[in-house]
Amino acid sequence: MEGSIEDIIVSLHVPVLLDKLSSKALRDLGSVWCAQSELRALSDVLGKIKKLLKFAEEAQARNILVKDCLRNLREVAYRAEDILDEFIYEACYEKDERYGGGKVRLHFPSILKADGLLRKQEIGPLINDELIKKLEEIEKEVKRYYVSESSGNQKSQHGGGVIDDILDTRPKSDSLVDKSLTLGRKEDVEAIKNKLLSSNPNENQKQVFVIAIVGLGGVGKTTLAQLVYNDPDVKEHFERRAWVCVSTDFNAVSLISAILESLNGRNPDLRNLDPLKCQLRKELGGKRVLIIIDDVWTEKKRDWEPLRVALMEAGEGSRIIVTTRSKRVSSMMQPMYTHDLVLSDEECWLIMERHISLNYGSIAPSLEEVGRKIARKCKRLPLAASTVAGYIFQKQRLIQLWSAEGFIRTDKAGAQYFDELLQRSFFQHYNGYMYRFVMHDLIHDLAEAVSGDVYGRFDYRKSSHSSKETRYSSMCCLNSIKDHLDHKKSYAEIRELPRGMKYLRNLQHLDLYGCRKLLSMPQGIGRLSSPKTLSIKNFGGWDERGDKDVEVLESLQPHPDQLRSLGIYKYSGLTFPRWLMIDLPSYNKLVTLELSVCNECQGLPPIGELPLLENLFLRDMKKLEEWSSSSCRGEESADEFPSLRNLYIEDCPELRILPQPLLSSPRLCELHFRRCPELWMLPTHAGGGLSRLTSLKNLCLGKKMEGLVQFLDETDNLPPYLNRLYIDDCKSLPKGLRNLSSLQHLILDPDCKAHYSPEELLINVIVKKGYYWEE
Q1: Of the ranges 91-100, 235-244, 247-256, 293-302, which is most confident?
Q2: Considering the entire predicted model, what is its pTM?
Q3: Rounded Cα gap, residues 370 and 357, in angstroms
Q4: Backbone dihedral region of 110: left (phi > 0), alpha (psi from -120 to 50 degrees) or beta?
């Protein structure tokens, strides 16, 4: 039987099941319902299977029977997840006194039994028959394949455990290039040639300078490196040249051996690093060399260090070119120049035209227009957001979905995974926006293809289907999305929420953004103990005068134990309710706070007393004049804002004063001001403007902030380690920019009229014009 083309991944699901089995709720249930031995046995067999999963998931590509085992295992894992979730619910019900001894019960019919009722005496047999027996059969079968394969290939066995070797089947590149198939690269070649043939940027520093070519797979990084490597001017300039392709095997021993073989045509046949380094240094002997290292994946600096040291004997003007998909790899190698490789529409069309012509002859004029449209869709490979159909998403929302599936244990881990995918161009920023992302259509189509029937997507543009294996589904209604974006028609018609929501003990994120017809919240909603996010906008109980807003928001008081993010929008009360003004410090796990379009409020809660607050957004607060971090208490403390990292203040036209402790925040690294025209000076008794913000790296002075720019110019008080500065408009640049040794980027609005001389800036500062959302 022919299997499906996708790899079947179960290693994400088994740890989730083991976590649930170790939960206190299930342990208690096992004790009360006499199912301890069954739950323990289930945990044991899952633990054994977990040890074999790495082998099975790698072996499925070469053994269709292993893939069948994995498919069966996935079905049982899904069934186990359903069973354990229902058990956990029953366990919570048993312990929860709020149900009043069975008088009031939020009851979900059991999906495990045909009659909808789950009885205690049925739990043991259910776990044994539905899960343990099937898992034991699968475990035996996978182990049999493992023993068979490992005995036939002893090299791939490590310590009697799991096969860890992954054969690198990626094709290796070489230095030869077919120039007839390379189009649209003239400017890229010239840009890199200029860096190759230029003198060292620092004559006193003896090192081989690195040039990085960065871009998504298939965009032409290797081809560009081949063109440069074989350019006549480059050949004449360098005394020695070498080309090596590393892919996933970035090993100092094998890499230096490959360089030596490329330089002199002989394999050194040495296996120890030290003699290899000595031979390479002897081979270089002060000669000006060019080394291409193609397809670098490693992000470990220690892998790069031995080669860097060995190359120090190369002559002045020597260069290394690395090609990589990862910007993090490029950064690790500290390049003198990074070339981000993209394709223009015309270049993409020329490449398509050449391939079509080679295969099918001349192109009919009527088809050229269609071809050019396809070229625009494929633009840059990391696609411009305007050509992406749908799929605009926020980082935090995707992390929440990962967490709901049990793929990650903490939001911090989710953020690390997301950033990794962003670095590799799996995701891209949407139109330059900092907090919105898109996925390239080609990447999405690939993900959809390999996900098989487990993930079903229903799209009005094409026929869709589901199968018995479909477990997740999504619906794409782009017409509705387009109508909303074009005509401001995502608001929901929800008028009330289920009364039983107060019993959802694991509910972590409650997003009611845009539910303006929602009249009230269920009684007792404040007793939820797990919420991390509560987002409300246009709440229907609120009126334009704000008479009821305080009362409504007071009734929405969330439980303080787990709240991580809070956003309040279009609130018209004159002041915030007690739980914000008095009790806010008790929300000591709050990380993100946003107050937007609170036009009548003249004061703020004691925000500075939140110990873990990292992100603060204040937007559209028309009557806010003074901000004292502890305004309710009439005092300020130097210990306030201990964790604040990102601060955005926008559209606060009356704001004149900031709290003094804010300008001493030890971790503040990003600060944005926009359209706050009255905020033209800062508390100087804080130590002088912004000079005490020693962690601040990014500063944005947006529209209508000319007064603050002038203040900073007059006082010469800028953050000492500033890396990036954006200025919307000013007549002259602030003094002291030349003293900022860490400043690398100065971005001016395209309409900025500031004039400056090169003497005002350090030589390494990049000055360009653009908009703040593009940074």
Answers
A1: 235-244
A2: 0.58
A3: 15
A4: beta
